[in-house]
Automatic annotation (TrEMBL):
Family to which this protein belongs: Belongs to the TonB-dependent receptor family.
Cellular location(s): Cell outer membrane
CDD domains: ligand_gated_channel (cd01347)
Signal peptide: 1-39
Protein name: TonB-dependent siderophore receptor
Domain Secretin/TonB short N-terminal, chain residue ranges per copy: 77-128
Protein source organism: Azospirillum doebereinerae
Amino acid sequence: MFDEAARSVGGPRSQWRPALSAVLLTTTMLCAVPATVSAAQPADSQPVAQAAGTVSFAIPAGPLSGALAAFGQASGLQILYAAEMARGVASPGVTGTLTHREALIRLLSGTGLTARFVDGGTVTLEKPVAAGATVLDPVTVQGSSSRDAGRTEGTGSYAASTTASATKLTLTPRETPQSVSVMTRQRMEDQGLNEIRDVLDQTVGVTRMQSGALGSDGSEIYARGFEVKNFQVNGTPRSTVYGFGDSISDMAVFDRVEVVRGASGLMNGVGDPSASVNLVRKRPTSTVQGTIEGQVGSWDRYRGEADLSGPLVENGRLRGRVVGAYQDNDTFIDRLHERKKVLYGVLEADLTEDTTWTVGVEYQKHKSDEASRAGFPLFYADGTKTDFSRSYNSGANWAYFMHDNLTVFSELKHRFGDGWTATLNVEHSNREYDGLMGYGVRGSLNRDGTGMGIWPGRWNSNLQQTSVSADVTGPFELFGRRHEVMAGVSGYYAKRSGLDYPLWYLTGYNYNIPNYFTWNGNIAQPTLNPTGWSQTNERQMAAYAATRLKPTDDLSVILGSRVSRWEQSEETHANGVAGTFKKRSKNGVVTPYAGAVYDLSDIWSVYGSYTSIFKPQDYKDVSGQTLDPIDGDAYEAGVKAEFFGGRMNASAAVFLIQQDNLAVIDTGRFTPDGGQAYKAAKGAKSKGFELEVSGEVLEGWQIGGGYSHTKVKDASGQQLLTYVPKDSFKLFTTYRLPGALDRLTLGGNVKWDGGIHNGTGRTRYEQDGYAVVDLMARYQVTEKVAATLNLNNLFDKKYLTSIQNNGYYGEPRNVLLSLKASW
């Protein structure tokens, strides 16, 4: 195996192993893995446990490459083979409950290929090599092993094999009684999606409302009519305190993004009924692999990325991975400049045959200079609409936003007999955000350019969060049938602390912009001395459990509940004034969950689910009082399908969300400290439907996308959130050409949002529905080097991404060229 890997990187193993080990160990020394690992047998003598277990297979006849991908997803094995072996070769498929070895024999029947188990998780395909023939470099089909279930890297697919983001039970999308969208590694690379905001913008049922620069709070994500604030990384929830979300994360670190639409109280306890976004980190691989990628694009965009992974010792019991990325770019907005740095290192050690310890560090720093927190006014003072250039920047030339995030994490996983697994996760993050604000949307714009000024101020805080969770999952026998159970406890402590600075109203400062039309950001920078300090503490502790019962072969019922304790305190001290202290808490909050899936056939299933909603909120009314927590119920039902042995997934869902105390803008009114005032809407109801498809339609043809429709009304029937599209359609597809043109892959994307409006009377702003079309082409220059061109907004459609308070344009036509080398 090592010899094959060595050939793929162009040299004998004696040359590459020391260098690889040095790089990985140096960049992850903070992880502090012990110098010794339990001794293991050589790979050739390890028990082939994977080959002995039985799995239910339903892989139809078809192209061998697709059949192998489906087998890898179902079995969790890595399959190494030369790409030329599978080209033009058909497989008879395999159906039934079989061992991995038995299934492979049937799958390869008539192909002339044989399978050899290298170890418990790796298989190579072989055929006799004629004298003088060229030995081809191996390619890898990655399965979903127990230590990395659901992995999408290396599958080349837009379909996910499994997900645990809805219930912590590892289920296929068809077995999950909620709507789950998974943005795979291949899809992100094909579309050039390097930021989480871009990933969510392409996710079915999710709407991104961009209204400010990267790193500001000028962007909001909506799903099913409500804002998305539930972010997780590897299943660990982020605090609800401002600054802890992962809404600006760079995607170099992550294997995939799993979005569970609807309420996810079983996983979060405290959360919105919109969606939960789980970013899943890359893990070390059992074979050596690496990539180096460079990108150039419109507006002087330059990006470099490197990713190196593999075993660090001869027996493969210690594995490592290091990822780094750097990006520097202007934008279509005048003067706005962005930079980011990303570094990620992770080690994974098999302490015993059944125990794996993972430890890692993730660092990301993002900076936006001459950045605005908003766009531009939509109306003149006389009520007529403005017409600004897409490149207009309302930010002062000294304004910036900075985020500096460092996270260390550890996972200890032990596999017991008969499929039982226990997992302990510990994570600690240190963050800092600093925003020096000066953005010109203050006042009323006259036609001669007068009447406008800036909102100045500064936000600067340090944040820390420590999270711990312990879970156990496994099967059990009851009434002669096999079922599954999951139980666990979790908790986190989060703290935000920092100096307070003047905001919005500064004595003696001249906010005025002489001529808004010719303004280039030049205005005096105010002196902002601290006015005091403040601190927010948040704690959440929970116990949860869920079981998946199988009363019959066709019916599965998931029942679960979470009991949570939530507490938040705020302490403020102004210079020379006695401090204030506020505390809010909820104890014994019970969040039930119920879901059922019934298989109509080997392909089709129907499902339904219910969960409750509880979410404390920080929005304040005109008197400065915090709104009461959101509470309510969420219902969902639908049909799902799994085609071609799991290579393509499809779903259709209807949903109903009922809740009280939804925060809506109290137009034209402000809190005592100058912030936007909100009011609580009673009896808010959201209902709608979603359609989605993802995966491989035919060999070489991938597709991902769907349609969503949502309506949100209050108890009186008045429509809410009219500035968020009710309807949207997204579809991205790629096709690898056959025969002599098989080095070329072509793709296209259509994203359509329905009409929106906001305001009343002469200040009512309307935007009709619009579509944006993108094109993509990738050429495989050699077996290891590929060039990809993305042409976005082909027809240069001019549209607004936000009309909530001010206007902000979407990106004009732009290009991105990527050159990637892999081994």
